Amino acid sequence: MSQTVDRALSILPLLAEGPADLGQVADRLGVHKSTALRLLRTLHEHGMVYRQSDQRYRLGARLIALAQEAMENLDIREIAHSHLVRLNELCGHTVHLAVYEEAEVLYIDKVESRYPVRMYSRIGKPVAITVAAVAKLLLADLPEAELRALADKLDYPLYTARSTPNAPAFLKELERVREQGWATDLGGHEESINCVAAPIRGADGRVVAAMSVSAPNVVVTAEELLTLLPQVRRTADAISGEYSGRTPPKDPKDTV
């Protein structure tokens, strides 16, 4: 039975590449056409594959609908929270999780610093979109046309001397973020606060959320905070793997 299930599941990645006929499916599985046909018929009955008029098979609407439903019901906050807590336990600094929704970047989770000096960010509150490290990662992943249109609409308040001053500078910074795969806010919103962030990606490789570690200068310097970047990126990668289904859930202590 396990071999039958394995063979049936092996058909799905093949059809994800495009429609295939019975012979191609049999060849890929290394089985006789009659065996391949039985598997295809079973998958067809459950809506997992569809037989076209040219007798080739493709992925079925039911499979696609299930995948979409599963993605919509995934709670990135629930998946990420234990990882954020563990990173906070190791470094002691404030850890945030943020998403992009309706032209705003919002914090959806926060684990407080263990130090007396704390940040006044709140869950559900929009971030300073032109300077925040998490915002840079989320916006850098937008389609180019959408990103440029958004950049032209944004205001660019000069919170500090290090704030992003205008759309051209913002787009240049996002290009750099896209290339390096991480982002910082080193005194761009508040002179005394520094932040380093990493992206969380879905199964398709797109950025679905971003996480960050932030700390004031009185607790740790910007240079010292940047030494945490490898841990931040490993944590983000672990969350990405669990969210996308590439890896099974693990104890977060094994990822940072």
Automatic annotation (TrEMBL):
Residue span, IclR-ED domain: 62-245
Keyword Metal-binding applies: no
Domain spans labelled HTH iclR-type: 2-61
Name used for this protein in its record: IclR family transcriptional regulator
UniProt keywords, alphabetically: DNA-binding, Transcription, Transcription regulation
Pfam families: HTH_IclR, IclR_C
Organism of provenance: Streptomyces doebereineriae
Taxonomy, superkingdom: Bacteria
Signal peptide coordinates: none
